[in-house]
Design brief:
Elements lengths: L24 H20 L5 H6 L6 H12 L2 H14 L4 H25 L4 H8 L3 H34 L9 H50 L7 H4 L9 H4 L7 H15 L3 H4 L8 H19 L2 H15 L11 H5 L1 H8 L4 H39 L5 H23 L6 H25 L5 H23 L13 H6 L6 H18 L5 H9 L12 H5 L9
């Protein structure tokens, strides 16, 4: 087993205990080859215009889009962070499995085909046009950019931690090994994204999904079989381990309260339905039927990993306890070790170095795939929704693409700087973004598609309310992390009932009520807007490049009051 004296670094450096941090030739070749493949695909499918840059020319089929949804969705939080949360907090971690899958049923039933029929480039585009408001568009664009930033911090943290196993401590320019890996990985990610846009990113995501799912399942089956944990169905057989693991892993609500479980699961469900980089996938397909089927395929591809993550967490927890130290208690497993439990379990099981490297490469692929979707959504919010629609309506396609690429670079720089000293584990960082999407954007999408009387004033009031409710617990819990003089949240009672990780449980009902109340107290939206909403639910098929607004502009959209 690993010599801990060579793998536990100085206090204060973000480094997983027990992880073999050293340069490894074969795993390095695997990862470098993978990254070069991503760059090559991005170059081959590089963008030429805004249609390819933001929605891949609306040319993606349902199976390919389903794989892209899976890769886009299964970030470092899914590949690494979910197993980490289950390992560190046991039953509470299952709130992430429940929340991150249930949201797709709402998307499938209520939003996927309707969003495709509305037919805009971006989520802020939908908000701005649906509510006839540049102010609403700007709020949605800023929210989209903020979601991309917060969400991507977790991806950068995952790439940095996993990169340590493969490349070792490459500390340069006064940076620690972890920080150097963050800078290197984010530079590569930003480089290929500025070149490829949505078209190249989508092609890459199908490849990235294949890599990450093969790596995850290969590691799971190898660890389970070699250690006698499982044979052919580790997703079920891991239950035999539960009696051997601590109560913190197997007993409900030992680590966190029932209320926090509900708040977290709810926030993740509504956040899933409000994430711009997920919704934009339904704009990249040719029809509403393809949008629905790509959602079904996406959910299938996601469940392949999600049903396996609890098993990997159980195997990793057992191996950590046997080979490194106590999982729970003081000090117990650190958050950094938890965040790489998938890689650590494969290493501690004595698997060949190339297999551990493959599992690590899968984590990097997952993080890059999601970062791609986030940065495309965030940059399109700046370039398309703010620059083109508000600042410079006469912008040429070349100018729009240039601003989009500069926005990707800006997002990359901000994310890298924040990830050098992250405030929370991977899954928690990602959950903050979900709470924001659920509190601000989900109510606008749902009401905008299903209640034609939702108007500009209601949307502005609702979005502002959601932003305020999300910001307060974030300040309460995240700011103290960087203040040595403060131990814990500013207001513990607020943290108990409005936790940052699950604030959408409180925010969403209030935002719905505010939006509906203000809409009812003010003038109804124009008839043309109502007709566009009705057209989103029409059974009549539309052309590949056609939108509900296009139909309304003809006799086909005429509907009597």
């Amino acid at each position: 087993m690993t010599d801990l004296s060579t793998t536990i670094m100085a206090t204060g450096e973000l480094l997983p205990e027990g992880l073999n941090v050293s340069f490894k030739t074969v795993p390095s070749i695997i990862v470098v080859s993978m990254l070069l493949l991503f760059l090559a695909i991005g170059f081959v499918f590089r963008v030429a215009d805004t249609e390819d840059m933001w929605v891949a020319g609306r040319s993606i089929g349902n199976l390919e889009n389903g794989m892209a949804i899976g890769a886009n969705w299964m970030s470092a939080a899914s590949y690494l962070g979910m197993a980490a949360l289950i390992a560190l907090s046991g039953f509470y971690g299952l709130a992430f499995v429940v929340g991150w899958t249930t949201g797709y049923f709402i998307l499938l039933i209520f939003m996927a085909s309707q969003m495709r029929r509305f037919g805009k480039y971006t989520a802020p585009d939908f908000v701005g046009d649906r509510f006839n408001s540049d102010a609403a568009r700007a709020i949605a664009a800023v929210t989209t950019f903020l979601i991309g930033f917060v969400y991507a911090i977790g991806q950068a943290r995952g790439m940095g931690l996993v990169g340590l196993y493969i490349f070792g401590d490459l500390g340069v320019l006064g940076l620690s090994g972890y920080q150097a890996m963050v800078v290197i990985m984010m530079t590569i990610t930003v480089g290929y994204l500025t070149l490829s846009g949505m078209l190249g990113a989508t092609k890459n995501m199908a490849v990235q999904y294949t890599i990450l799912i093969v790596a995850f399942l290969a590691g799971l089956y190898a660890v389970g079989y070699s250690q006698g944990f499982s044979t052919i169905a580790p997703q079920i057989e891991y239950g035999l381990l539960l009696d051997d693991l601590a109560a913190e892993f197997s007993e409900p609500f030992v680590n966190e309260s029932y209320y926090l479980w509900i708040a977290t699961a709810f926030s993740l469900i509504v956040g899933t339905c409000g994430l711009p980089h997920v919704l934009v996938r339904f704009y990249t397909v040719e029809s509403e039927k393809t949008a629905r089927w790509s959602c079904v395929w996406g959910l299938f591809f996601i469940c392949v990993l999600y049903l396996s993550a609890p098993a990997f967490a159980a195997f990793g927890t057992s191996l950590y306890g046997d080979n490194v130290g106590a999982v729970y208690g003081d000090p117990g497993m650190t958050e950094a070790a938890g965040d790489v439990i998938v890689v650590l379990a494969t290493q501690l099981a004595g698997m060949p170095q190339w297999l551990v490297g493959l599992v690590a490469a899968g984590g990097i692929a997952a993080a890059i795939a999601t970062t791609a979707g986030l940065f495309i959504a965030g940059s399109s919010a700046i370039s398309h929704d703010i620059y083109t629609n508000i600042i410079n309506p006469e912008a040429t396609q070349r100018e729009q693409v240039l601003v989009g690429r500069l926005s990707i670079v800006l997002l990359g720089v901000l994310t890298t700087l924040a990830a050098l000293d992250p405030a929370a584990p991977i899954a928690a960082l990602v959950s903050y973004a979900f709470a924001l999407a659920g509190a601000v954007l989900f109510p606008m999408f749902f009401l905008g598609l299903w209640w034609e009387n939702t108007n500009r004033q209601g949307a502005l009031a609702g979005m502002t309310t959601g932003l305020v409710i999300w910001t307060i617990p974030m300040i309460n819990e995240v700011v103290p992390v960087y203040l040595a003089s403060v131990d814990g949240a500013f207001f513990p009672l607020l943290q108990q009932w409005v936790p940052a990780i699950g604030s959408a449980l409180i925010a969403v009902p209030i935002v719905f009520a505010v939006t509906i109340g203000v809409s009812m107290a003010t003038d109804e939206p124009p008839m043309e807007t109502k007709q566009v909403v009705r057209q989103c639910h029409s059974p009549e098929p539309m052309g590949q490049q056609q939108t509900a607004e296009d139909v309304v502009a003809t006799d086909g959209g005429h509907t009597e009051e």
